Amino acid sequence: IVKGRKLDEELLEEIEETLLRADVGVATSARLIDELREAGKRGEVREGEQVLPFLKSHLAERLAAGRIVFAPEKPTVILIVGVNGSGKTTSIAKLAGWLRERGKTVVLGAGDTFRAAAVEQLTIWSKRLGIEIVKQDTGADPAAVAFDAADAAVSRGADVLIVDTAGRLHTQEHLMRELEKIRRVLGKRIPGAPHETLLVLDATTGQNAVQQARRFHEATPVTGIILAKLDGTARGGAVLSIKDELDLPVKFVGVGEKLPDIEVFDPVAYVEALFS
Amino acid sequence: SLTQRLTGLFSRLTGGAGRLTEDSVKEAVREVKRALLEADVSLEVARTFTDAVKEKAVGREGMEGVTHAQQFVKIVHDELQALMGGETKGIEFDVSGTTVIMMVGLQGSGKTTTCGKLALWLRRKHKKSPMLVAADIQRPAAIEQLKVLGKSLDVPVHFEEGGRPPRICARAVEQARKQGSDVVILDTAGRLHIDEPLMEELAAVKREAKPHLVYLVADAMTGQDAVKSSAAFHERLGLSGVILTKLDGDARGGAALSIRQVTGCPVIFVGVGEKLDALDLFHPERMAGRILG
Ligand SMILES: Nc1nc2c(ncn2[C@@H]2O[C@H](COP(=O)(O)OP(=O)(O)OP(=O)(O)O)[C@@H](O)[C@H]2O)c(=O)[nH]1
Ligand SMILES: Nc1nc2c(ncn2[C@@H]2O[C@H](COP(=O)(O)OP(=O)(O)OP(=O)(O)O)[C@@H](O)[C@H]2O)c(=O)[nH]1
Ligand SMILES: [Mg+2]
Ligand SMILES: [Mg+2]
Fold it and tell me: Across chain B, which distance is largest between two alpha carbons, in Å?
């Protein structure tokens, strides 16, 4: 779209539209366009041909990927949180598979004790993976399950414990407090836990993703994002605002419903896809 | 809020006198477009909408006792409400026989839960004897999830050990007719609108089970993608209506306007919680207010 064109307002508008369509949001898109316009004025970008490479590298830098940070002493505890239906349970299965491929022993904690057949869903995944799951019946206290899971992970000498939680809207105060309680209980049993708290965001979500990140980050300091359902047509552009405002990096992306469909976040590939 | 921003804008531009001028409307429309985009209304729909508003607003005679901003906001509100469609009356039934309702949508939008909610609604409001059909055979424990919901409502659930969704649904409808269930609700697996084999599977379910109603179950927090996915489902299946879920959150819900504009389909119900009684009729004026913020 940029061959032989100069960096003019028409081109800037086209680029802004691309960003808006990717759910980057009004304010963040406008700021990026301003930065591009300034770069043009400084002579950093002259020809249309320089625009996309400049913007892509600019964006990729901003989106610097995060990686899982393992605890100095095992088990590393990973808490998975997010709103209803975002892809938490499926992402946990994929992440467990990914860790196991890297030689880690993984235990799962079935911390969603609320939704119909949630424990059954994660149990099926644990069987497919051949890994242990700690669970109680639906209706049990999720903090109690978290505690049991932490206990089991320690006594089994597991490398990683991944704890599933029920989907919850960040507007539900009592459920956000429940999340704080789960986190405290994990920390009581294993000092420093949870070492990672990953927020699973649905790539089809619009600007509400930013609010989700803010509120979940307040309840349980989030250390990274799993951007799920990136195999669809949505681009999850809200992650740019989230990185700008909260400095939360995307660590993984979900690209399908099967076990292998998880990838470490690659900012360059992500930005390429934004503009393809 | 948008109203406050517009008030500031108009008092700065016009001092409140005379007609709504082209210049003041142009700037005001830019504010509205921004508000719509922030509310996740699709770019195209925001443009079409603001063009329509501009046309209605320019040259309008100032009204007695009403500021320009108030007048303009009213034009915007009325236009938005008109677009969202009139009050919905829920589901209309043809009195004879078995009504088949097919629920479709992207992954995780709330289909299975909404199937349960709809069964309860139909029993309570329409004295129906619903049957739930577990046609998602791929998601781990999807059948179990629907069975748990059915059990809690004392609603029968048709499920099969093997077989594919189209035949499962066709058999379920036959079974419903035999056992006197007068509404059959088909729970299908979530899928991407760009997954050709799975979209064809849905078309096959439609051919075999012959639903009277096809509802798109869409997440209220969906962003710009709402246009693409809903258009694809509509093109493939012909939607009867939309159910917008998770409206108990704080997403502005601009997807409602985008989906309405792009498919022409009305939003019939809204999901407002995880419990099975958390289903309301859609109220266009409330949605308009929510989108505009
Ligand atoms: N296409 C695609 N589908 C996904 C992806 N991740 C999850 N899903 C699907 O999204 C749906 C919801 O996934 P879950 O893992 O149940 O989501 P959840 O966040 O645990 O849901 P709740 O526990 O009910 O809040 C399922 O149909 C998954 O198969 C992904 O990366 N791509
Ligand atoms: N807060 C809230 N949660 C909802 C609503 N509707 C559904 N949910 C929740 O959203 C999550 C996903 O719901 P499901 O019914 O499993 O979604 P689905 O579309 O069947 O998912 P797939 O079959 O995997 O595509 C669950 O945690 C539900 O409890 C709603 O209106 N409000
Ligand atoms: Mg789950
Ligand atoms: Mg389902």
Answer: 73
- Reported as a pLDDT band with limits 50, 70 and 90, residue B17 is low
Tokens representing B259 are 């989906």
Question: B232: which DSSP letter?
Answer: H
* Sign of the CA dihedral running A187, A190, A191, A193: negative
Q: Which helix (H) or strand (E) holds B259?
A: helix B255-263
Distance from CA of B241 to the nearest CA of A (A): 20
Q: How many CA atoms lie within 13 A of B71 on its CB side?
A: 24
CB contact under 8 A, A21 and B224: yes
Rounded CA separation B16/A195 (Å) = 58
How, if at all, do strands A262-264 and A250-254 pair? antiparallel
Per-residue pLDDT of B99-120, as tens digits, reads 999 999 999 999 999 999 999 9
Asked if A105 has any chain B CB less than 8 Å from its own CB, the reply is no
Question: What is the bridge-based pairing of β-strands A196-202 and B183-187?
Answer: unpaired
With an 8 Å Cβ cutoff, are B37 and A20 in contact?
Answer: yes
- CB of B37 within 8 Å of a chain A CB? The answer is yes
| CA geometry: angle A150, A155, A161, nearest 5 deg | 35
Which pLDDT band holds residue A224 (cuts at 50, 70, 90)?
very high
State which of B274, B276, B281 you would mutate to test the pocket of ligand 2, scoring each by most atoms of that ligand within 8 A of its C-beta.
Answer: B274
What DSSP line would sit under B107-128, residue for residue?
Answer: TTSSHHHHHHHHHHHHHHHH--
Whole-angstrom Cα distance, residue B186 to residue B112?
9
Element (DSSP H or E) covering residue B225: helix B225-237
Banded pLDDT at B65 (limits 50, 70, 90): low
